[in-house]
Specification:
single chain; about 170 residues; Hypothetical Protein Pfu-838710-001; 8-stranded antiparallel beta barrel
Length: about 170
């Protein structure tokens, strides 16, 4: 068992792009849908993810906050493709950019499809109170805001957010 400690941020500007080490395309979908999670019928999110020619099945505790139990298992690519195509309530498309600041890895997800225009940075930490660098491009923290969780972006994509939701996001950065 692993505990994932992850903080999520909006970005203040695009200056992070100059420090990209590498990027990869990802597709992921949830076998336990967002509705079941929102209604409290699920204790975990279960997702299939494809990155390049590799695939994983990921199980993460369905709770808000920055620390959650997580399990991650490699699975055959063909199985993941079938899961995404036939068992999921939709799939997210994104490009993940790897940016290192003072030896700390930031994974910056640039969403496509129905979530195009949304870009968030995530940093995994060894402890809830672990210090980490705060580069100038790092904007407002959204770790506790459920609408930024990938599972919720399938049910309520960024492009469907109301003007008030987008204004709240813009005003906070």
């Amino acid at each position: 068992m692993m505990i994932e400690i992850e903080r999520k941020f909006l970005l203040a500007d695009d200056s992070w792009r100059a420090a990209i080490e590498h990027s990869e395309s990802l597709a992921q979908g949830y076998l336990v849908g967002a509705q079941a999670l929102r209604e409290g019928h699920a204790r975990a999110s279960v997702r299939a993810r494809i990155t390049g020619e590799q695939a994983w099945l990921n199980i993460k505790a369905a709770m808000s906050g920055i620390a959650r139990t997580e399990f991650d298992y490699p699975i055959p690519l063909a199985d993941a493709r079938v899961m995404l195509a036939s068992l999921c309530d939709g799939a997210l498309e994104k490009v993940r950019h790897h940016v290192r600041v003072e030896s700390v890895l930031f994974e910056i997800d640039e969403f496509g499809g129905d979530n195009e225009g949304l870009i968030v940075a995530e940093v995994e930490l060894p402890a809830v109170d672990a210090p980490f660098p705060r580069p100038s491009w790092l904007g407002r923290e959204v770790s506790a805001l459920g609408r930024y969780y990938n599972v919720n972006l399938i049910a309520h994509p960024y492009r469907q957010w109301s003007p008030a939701e987008r204004a709240a996001e813009d005003a906070a950065c």
